[in-house]
C-alpha cells in the first residue's frame, strides 16, 4: 500500500510534458511572407543587373589600367580612416562611459551631425580651413572619412561597452596597480574586439561607397571610377558596382559570424553591428546552475 501511495505521489509531482519542440518553434505564415517580399525586393534588381552586365564584364573590369590605382586608393583611404577612427573613438568612448556618463546624450547628438549635415557642406568647410600641404594629398580625404564614420563607430563601440561590466573590470585592474594605458590595452580592448571589428567593417564599407567628397576633392577613388566609366561602358560599371557590393556583404556576414561564434565560446555578449544580445553562460563544474 505504501508503495502504491509513493508511486501516486511521484506521478503527481512529475512535470507535465510540454508541447513538442516543432510546435513551439513554428514560425507564423506572415513572417515568411514578409521575408519573401524583402528577398524579392533585393534579389530581383541584383538579378537584373547581373543579366545586364553579364559574367564576361567581371573579367573586363580588371583589364582597365586605372582600375588598380582607384581600388588601391580606396583601400588606402579605408586603412587611414579605420586606424584614425579607432585610435580616436575607442579611448574617447570608454572615458565618456566611465567618467562622464552624463554627457552621453550630448555625445550621441554630436556624433550624429555628420549624417545630418550634407557632405557637400562638410567638404566646403574642410577645404576652407585645411592647411595647404594636405589639400594636394589624399590624406585629407581620409581625415574627412574619419568624420563621416564617427556616427557608426561610436554606436558600435557604445553597444560593445554596454555588453559587459566595464566599470567592474576597470576598478579591478586599477586595484591591482595597472594604469590607464595598461587597463585600456589589456582589459577593455580585448572585450571590445567584436565592437571594434563592427566599426572597422562599417568604416570600410563607407569609404568604398562614398562618392561626393572624393569627386569634389578631384580624387579618383573606386566609386568615382565607377561613375566615370558608366559613360563609356555601362556593363563594366554595373559589374564593378556589383563586385563592390558583394565584397561589402561578405565582410558584414564575416563580422556577424565571427562575433557570434566567439561570443558563444566565451559566454559573453554578441555584438552584431548596432545590436547587443547577451549570450547564455554555461555553468562550470563546481558552480551552481
Report on the structure:
This protein has a single domain (65-268), classed as MetI-like (MetI-like fold, Orthogonal Bundle). Helix content is 75%, strand content 3%. It has helices at 2-13, 21-24, 29-53, 55-61, 65-98, 104-111, 113-116, 119-129, 132-135, 139-161, 166-175, 180-191, 193-209, 212-216, 222-230, 234-266, and strands spanning 269-272, 275-278. α4 (55-61) crosses α16 (234-266). The relative contact order is 0.11. Residues 1-8 and 268-289 have low confidence and may be disordered.
Architecture blueprint of SSEs:
Elements: H1 2-13, H2 21-24, H3 29-53, H4 55-61, H5 65-98, H6 104-111, H7 113-116, H8 119-129, H9 132-135, H10 139-161, H11 166-175, H12 180-191, H13 193-209, H14 212-216, H15 222-230, H16 234-266, E1 269-272, E2 275-278
Antiparallel strand pairs: 1-2
Distance between the termini: 37 Å
Uncertain residue ranges: 1-8, 268-289
Order of helices and strands: HHHHHHHHHHHHHHHHEE
- Which structural class should the secondary elements be placed in? mainly alpha
Bulk shape: globular
User: In what range is the share of β-strand residues?
Assistant: under 5%
Quick tags:
MetI-like fold; mainly alpha; disordered N terminus; two-stranded antiparallel ribbon
Offer a concise description of the structure:
By secondary structure, the protein is an all-alpha fold.
Amino acid at each position: 500500500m505504501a508503495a502504491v501511495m509513493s508511486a501516486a505521489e511521484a506521478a503527481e509531482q512529475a512535470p507535465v510534458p510540454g508541447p513538442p519542440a516543432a510546435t513551439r518553434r513554428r514560425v507564423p505564415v506572415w513572417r515568411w511572407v514578409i521575408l519573401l517580399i524583402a528577398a524579392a525586393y533585393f534579389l530581383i534588381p541584383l538579378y537584373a543587373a547581373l543579366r545586364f552586365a553579364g559574367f564576361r564584364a567581371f573579367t573586363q573590369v580588371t583589364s582597365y589600367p586605372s582600375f588598380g590605382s582607384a581600388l588601391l586608393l580606396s583601400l588606402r583611404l579605408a586603412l587611414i580612416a579605420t586606424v584614425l577612427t579607432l585610435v580616436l573613438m575607442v579611448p574617447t568612448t570608454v572615458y565618456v562611459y566611465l567618467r562622464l556618463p552624463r554627457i552621453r546624450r550630448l555625445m550621441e547628438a554630436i556624433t550624429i551631425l555628420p549624417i545630418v549635415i550634407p557632405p557637400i557642406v562638410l567638404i566646403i568647410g574642410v577645404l576652407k580651413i585645411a592647411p595647404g600641404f594636405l589639400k594636394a594629398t589624399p590624406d585629407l580625404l581620409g581625415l574627412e572619412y574619419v568624420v563621416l564614420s564617427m556616427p557608426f563607430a561610436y554606436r558600435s563601440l557604445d553597444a560593445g561597452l554596454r555588453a559587459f561590466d566595464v566599470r567592474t573590470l576597470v576598478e579591478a585592474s586599477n586595484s591591482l596597480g595597472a594604469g590607464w594605458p595598461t587597463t585600456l590595452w589589456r582589459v577593455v580592448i580585448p572585450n571590445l574586439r567584436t565592437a571594434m571589428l563592427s566599426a572597422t567593417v562599417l568604416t570600410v564599407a563607407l569609404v568604398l561607397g562614398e562618392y561626393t567628397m572624393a569627386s569634389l576633392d578631384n580624387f579618383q577613388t573606386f566609386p568615382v571610377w565607377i561613375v566615370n566609366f558608366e559613360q563609356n561602358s555601362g556593363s563594366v560599371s554595373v559589374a564593378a558596382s556589383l563586385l563592390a557590393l558583394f565584397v561589402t556583404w561578405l565582410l558584414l556576414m564575416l563580422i556577424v559570424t565571427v562575433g557570434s561564434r566567439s561570443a558563444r565560446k566565451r559566454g559573453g555578449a554578441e555584438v552584431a553591428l548596432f545590436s547587443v544580445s547577451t549570450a547564455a553562460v554555461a555553468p562550470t563544474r563546481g558552480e551552481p546552475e
